[in-house]
Amino acid sequence: MANKAIHCFFLTHFLLQIAHTYARVPAIIVFGDSTVDSGNNNQMSTLLKSNFQPYGRDFFGGQPTGRFSNGRLPTDFISEAFGIKPVIPAYLDPSYDIREFATGVCFASAGTGYDNATSDVLSVMPLWKELEYYKEYQQELRGYLGNEIANEVLGEALYLLSIGTNDFLENYYILPKRSLEFSIEGYQNFLLGICGNFITELYNLGARKLSITGLPPMGCLPLERTTNIMLGGACIEEYNNVAKDFNEKLKGMIANLNKQLAGIRLVLSNPYDILLEMVQNPEFFGFEEAAKACCGTGRFEMSYMCDKINPFTCSDANKYVFWDSFHPTEKTNGIIAYHVVKNSLAEFLW
Asked: Among 34, 50, 79, 325, which one carries the catalytic annotation?
């Protein structure tokens, strides 16, 4: 365990040194769902919010920002690893403006998915709207930096897309419409088509360096394990297998797009294996609990059910893989971030 902690410390230090010396990424631009939403849902009429304590209790200043964690998100750590800044602000946050957004901005919305029907479930921002805000941002950036410099920033920026879990867990497996319309394989292909079109649109708008985040072992999220009480709260292997299959399909789609779109550098950042390893061997990473979350009973609480008056919330989130029943702790996010930087994003450091 001590060796693992020392290894993580030196890896972090090494990546930061590389980034400060060689980084050619001037900005991090983020799209997706609650895994990367840094506060856009705060400005929306939705029940899916986290801008209250104990969310953010380990964030800078102990402030709840709308991030679904006790602290920072993977994208925040990635931005820091690239030597840019320690946090990526939400585009809809009125306390920031184009000066801060010029080096990193988040368009993500908690609860959304590739499928427009997924965003309708909790009245959050659909993926197409995230793209519309990005187009608005492009114009603001050109007004701030001038066309030539802004276009250079947009072309050299690293674009991160983290999305898809809600399409399955909050839509396909819960509501009848899509499951009646598609087999699980058909729905995967439907989502891949949307993903491919989204990446192509970003490419046509000038993006060249992009990362698509694969699905996690979603059957091991505490909420899903709680529903699997008949099998003693074990991970739901059906959901994990769907995630693995989808990630393989993403890999194939990425290979095709890299051939079809001249000059694009598109990679898959896959959190599946590293998160599953944390779930199966938590002690190796310095965790004590992986089956339930820190917040509340750790079985089902999320968003408003995870509030500051819940008497069961843990005192030390660093002992837990998961913060609430659906989202990782800051410590987990940091481990995932440096894993994907080392294994997927390092090519963008030069």
From this structure: 34
Tell me whether residue 327 is one of the annotated catalytic residues: yes
**Catalytic residue chosen out of the listed positions 211, 327, 339, 344:** 327
The residue ranges of every structural domain in the chain are: 26-225+236-271+331-348
The pLDDT value given to residue 3: 42
Catalytic residue flag (residue 324):
yes
Predicted confidence at residue 275, as pLDDT, reads 98
Q: Which residue of the set 58, 76, 115, 324 is catalytic?
A: 324
What whole-number distance in Å separates Cα of residue 275 and Cα of residue 321?
9
Q: pTM for this structure?
A: 0.93
Ranges of the chain with pLDDT below 70? 1-23
pLDDT for 23: 52
Task: Report CA Rg, the chain.
Answer: 19
SS (H, E, C) the chain: CHHHHHHHHHHHHHHHHHHHHHCCCCCEEEEECCCCCCCHHHHCCCCCCCCCCCCCCCCHHHCCCCCCCCCCCHHHHHHHHCCCCCCCCECCCCCCCHHHHCCEEECCCCCCCCCHHHHHHCCCCCHHHHHHHHHHHHHHHHHHHCHHHHHHHHHHCEEEEECCHHHHHHHHCCCHHHHHHCCHHHHHHHHHHHHHHHHHHHHHCCCCEEEEECCCCHHHCHHHHHHCHHHCCCCCHHHHHHHHHHHHHHHHHHHHHHHHCCCCEEEEECCHHHHHHHHHCHHHHCCCECCCCCCCCCCCCCHHHCCCCCCCCCCCHHHECECCCCCECHHHHHHHHHHHHHHHHHHHHC
Concerning whether 79 is annotated as a catalytic residue, the answer is: no
| CATH 3.40.50 given to domain 26-225+236-271+331-348 | yes
pLDDT of residue 350: 72
